[in-house]
Amino acid sequence: MENTLPTSDQNFVESLIPQKFPFVMVSGISEYSEEHLVSGFEIKEDNFFVHNGIFQASGLIEHQAQSVALHTGYKFYLLGKEAPTGYIGAIKTFEAETLPKTGDYLVSEVKIINEMMGVTLVEIVTKINGEVIAKSEMKTVVK
Predict the structure, then answer these.
(1) For residue 96, what are the contacts with CB-CB under 8 A and spacing of at least 6?
(2) What is the C-alpha to C-alpha distance for residues 66 and 101, in angstroms, rounded to an integer?
(3) Mind listing the pLDDT tens digit for each residue in 106-127?
């Protein structure tokens, strides 16, 4: 399987994260480096986190965490290895300016702040049409 960026190949993206349908909250990668990743996700009506046409804050957090998992998964893909399973270790901050609606396309930038002994500190900014709608800082832990 050879993939180049950007990609919205759903099968490829899903192969990089431990979550499976219907709990997948990422659908593309547009940029990757050791220190960052830009992911995308279109919110559909049948999404687990959509209530009355609104994507809930818990869905935004899950999208951001899966974006971090996507960074790890793509890193291991490039190394030719299977990615480890990761978990949210702690959410230091989370702010949502607005909640997205069905049909919105989220673009999230993950910035790796520090990575040591399986614990990664990240900052994540999520935008719709270039406007920031959510920010967070979290720690993830790989198994």
Answers:
(1) 57, 60, 133, 134
(2) 19
(3) 999 999 999 998 899 999 999 9
The C-alpha atoms of residue 31 and residue 18 are separated, in whole angstroms, by: 20
C-alpha 8/C-alpha 83 separation (Å) is 19
CB 24 within 8 A of CB 43: no
Residues whose CB is less than 8 angstroms from the CB of residue 94 and which lie 6 or more positions away in sequence, other chains included: 57, 60, 61, 134, 135, 136, 138
Tokens 């499976």 belong to 20
Q: pLDDT for 95-105, tens place per residue?
A: 999 999 999 99
CA distance 18 to 14: 8
Give the distance from CA 64 to its chain's centroid: 4
Token pair belonging to 142: 């790989």
Judge whether 67 and 37 are in contact, CB under 8 Å: yes
Contact 68, 112 (CB under 8 A): no
- Predicted model pTM: 0.94
Burial class of residue 140, CB neighbours in 10 A (0-12, 13-18, 19+): buried
